[in-house]
Amino acid sequence: VQLVESGGGLVQPGESLRLSCAASGFTVSTYAMSWYRQAPGKEREWVARVPSAGGIINYVDSVKGRFTISRDNAKNTVYLQMNSLNAEDTAVYYCNGWYQQFPWGQGTQVTVSS
């Protein structure tokens, strides 16, 4: 089982990024999947959740209206579209199951700075 995050980078405030999380060893469509992030000096926090089938997609209040989580079952990949980025979004971003039941990947660094 492996999760590989990618798509991070250095962007200016107001810009966008699309993160990808490629999964192997399990099928993402059968699990509720989430994105998490860890900012410097802070604990890891949950950001967004997509259910396994139907249901409601949830976001932490700070990203509602700006971030969109999605899943491509054919590619076994989970995405996080991030728009209107600001400095508070700077963090290492990770994906995992809703219950954090898979080994953590290396994450992808997102830095928002002018």
Structure description:
- The model has no long low-confidence stretch (mean pLDDT 96).
- 0% of the residues lie in helices and 47% in strands.
- The termini are far apart.
- The protein is globular, with a radius of gyration of 13 Å.
- The strands form 2 sheets. It has a 6-stranded mixed β-sheet, with no helix packed on it. It has a 4-stranded antiparallel β-sheet with strand order 1-3-8-7, with no helix packed on it.
- It contains no helices and 10 strands.
- It has 114 residues and is mainly beta.
Give a short synopsis of this structure.
With 114 residues, this protein is mostly beta strands. It is built from no helices and ten strands.
Lateral strand order in the biggest sheet: 2-10-9-4-5-6
- Determine Rg (CA atoms, Å): 13 Å
- Can you tell me the overall shape? globular
Strand residue percentage = over 45%
**Topology as H/E string?**
EEEEEEEEEE
| SS field, number of helical segments | 0
Which whole number gives the mean pLDDT?
96
Class computed from helices, strands and strand pairing: mainly beta
The helix content, as a percent range, equals under 10%
Distance between the termini: 37 Å
Described by strand count, sense and barrel closure, the largest sheet is: 6 strands, mixed
Q: Uncertain segments of ≥5 residues (pLDDT<50)?
A: none
Record field, number of beta strands: 10
